[in-house]
From TrEMBL:
<feature type="transmembrane region" description="Helical">
    <location>
        <begin position="215"/>
        <end position="232"/>
    </location>
</feature>
<feature type="transmembrane region" description="Helical">
    <location>
        <begin position="50"/>
        <end position="70"/>
    </location>
</feature>
<keyword id="KW-0812">Transmembrane</keyword>
<keyword id="KW-0472">Membrane</keyword>
<feature type="domain" description="Acyltransferase 3">
    <location>
        <begin position="5"/>
        <end position="358"/>
    </location>
</feature>
<dbReference type="GO" id="GO:0016746">
    <property type="term" value="F:acyltransferase activity"/>
</dbReference>
<keyword id="KW-0808">Transferase</keyword>
<dbReference type="InterPro" id="IPR050623">
    <property type="entry name" value="Glucan_succinyl_AcylTrfase"/>
</dbReference>
<dbReference type="InterPro" id="IPR002656">
    <property type="entry name" value="Acyl_transf_3_dom"/>
</dbReference>
<protein>
    <submittedName>
        <fullName>Acyltransferase family protein</fullName>
    </submittedName>
</protein>
<feature type="transmembrane region" description="Helical">
    <location>
        <begin position="82"/>
        <end position="103"/>
    </location>
</feature>
<keyword id="KW-0012">Acyltransferase</keyword>
<feature type="transmembrane region" description="Helical">
    <location>
        <begin position="284"/>
        <end position="303"/>
    </location>
</feature>
<dbReference type="Pfam" id="PF01757">
    <property type="entry name" value="Acyl_transf_3"/>
</dbReference>
<feature type="transmembrane region" description="Helical">
    <location>
        <begin position="315"/>
        <end position="335"/>
    </location>
</feature>
<feature type="transmembrane region" description="Helical">
    <location>
        <begin position="148"/>
        <end position="167"/>
    </location>
</feature>
<keyword id="KW-1133">Transmembrane helix</keyword>
Length: 398
């Protein structure tokens, strides 16, 4: 089993990108939990740079990691994955996420909310649905940014069931796909599939992150997760991704410029013609996959081995992921009275979020009771030792 340090780095940096993206959500015109008084459209083209692909990339790496986990430790797989994903989800919904909902109510509820956090938390835990504005009510308890965990668990259980029922058929199909995807099909087919899925479903099913009614997101994330599982051992396909990385990067850059032009020209008040909307969705799918292919190809080319930074950051990803959005929301809301210019406040939020989350990780990893609540194994190793293959032992979020 070969260590995949390139996927370790891709996973680590992809989750780190979430901090930048969610800080950006505070400043753009798109709806979010709290909003800057200076929110506007200036940052939106930069947000579009990763919007099509950042989550799909995480699910793809998750699929590859799942393949390595199953190969390394098949016994007790279902129980272990459920424990490592669902326990942090439950803890997060009860303890970590509520401050996000609290400040959302403080900022958005007509007349504000003045009863304090503990009173709100009590109502949150009781599932109080009376926090409403213009008929739109906040649903609590909620998982907010932790939606990735139940989705990853559901996809993992689906994969495990399919392997149990049709493992031999999946192996046969995987072999045929490997031969096919060893050429340009590795760029064309996933891009076309994601574009068609967006054409058919994006307009019919709003992105809810509620698991049971989120059909467009399932149509893009589940296949990408399965693709990652299959790619884990498809060496010929990795060679093709490496070989075509420059082409993937060039087309991804071109499709990004198309998307920036499209969203800069059209909005709800000035909608595009339907044929152009459908074409944009195909372009979105192309950008989604070709950006991922370029990232994977360049990571394969550039990452040659382990490093002290990777040994430290890889296990920190899960706790930082759980903490980061709540830290951003709390900091952003409480910085508003200082009226710091956005060009200074934004970088300050990013740096403070990383500092607080990594400080939280330093505390969490030293307290045995907290470790499983943030997705870490119960016992820490004195010196982190990579597993024989796949991703690192404590990087089970991926």
């Amino acid at each position: 089993m070969t260590r995949r340090y390139d996927l370790d780095w891709v996973r680590t940096l992809a989750f780190g990108l979430l901090v930048f993206y969610h800080v950006g959500m505070y400043y753009v015109s798109w709806d979010w939990h709290v909003k800057s008084p200076d929110a506007g459209t200036a940052l939106e083209p930069l947000m579009l740079l990763s919007a099509p692909w950042r989550l799909s990339l995480l699910f793809l790496v998750s699929g590859a990691a799942t393949a390595f986990m199953l190969e390394r430790r098949p016994q007790g797989f279902v129980g272990n994955r459920s424990w490592r994903l669902l326990l942090p989800l439950a803890f997060g919904m009860l303890v970590i996420v509520p401050p996000q909902s609290y400040y959302e109510v403080v900022e958005k509820l007509p007349g504000g909310y003045h009863d304090g956090y503990l009173a709100f938390w009590s109502r949150y835990l009781q599932g109080d649905g009376s926090f409403c504005r213009d008929g739109d009510c906040l649903r609590v308890p909620t998982w907010n940014h932790l939606w990735f965990l139940p989705y990853l668990w559901a996809y993992t259980m689906t994969l495990w069931a399919v392997l149990k029922l049709a493992g031999r058929a999946m192996t046969t199909i995987g072999g045929r796909l490997t031969r096919w995807f060893a050429g340009p099909a590795v760029l064309v087919v996933p891009a076309l599939a994601l574009g068609v899925a967006r054409m058919l479903l994006a307009g019919r099913f709003e992105s809810t992150h509620a698991l049971f009614d989120d059909w467009y997101n399932h149509a893009q994330y589940l296949p990408v997760f399965l693709l990652g599982f299959w790619l884990a051992r498809a060496d010929a396909v990795w060679d093709a991704i490496l070989r075509w990385r420059w082409l993937a990067l060039a087309v991804a850059a071109a499709t990004y410029l198309v998307l920036v032009a499209y969203f800069g020209r059209f909005d709800e008040a000035n909608p595009p013609p339907e044929w152009l909307r459908m074409l944009q969705r195909l372009v979105w799918g192309a950008n989604q996959w070709l950006s991922i292919a370029a990232i994977l190809g360049f990571a394969r080319r550039l990452v040659k081995g382990d490093s002290p930074a990777l040994r430290y950051l890889a296990p920190a990803v899960y706790p930082v992921y759980i903490l980061h959005q709540t830290v951003i929301v709390v900091l952003a809301h409480n910085l508003q009275p200082l009226a710091i210019p956005p060009l200074l406040e934004g970088p300050l939020l990013v740096l403070a979020t990383f500092a607080i989350c990594l400080g939280g990780y330093e505390l969490i990893r030293r307290i045995p009771l907290l470790r499983p609540l943030f997705g870490l194994k119960r016992k820490a190793h004195a010196t982190p030792v990579p597993a024989p293959g796949g991703v690192r032992p404590e990087s089970d979020l991926a």
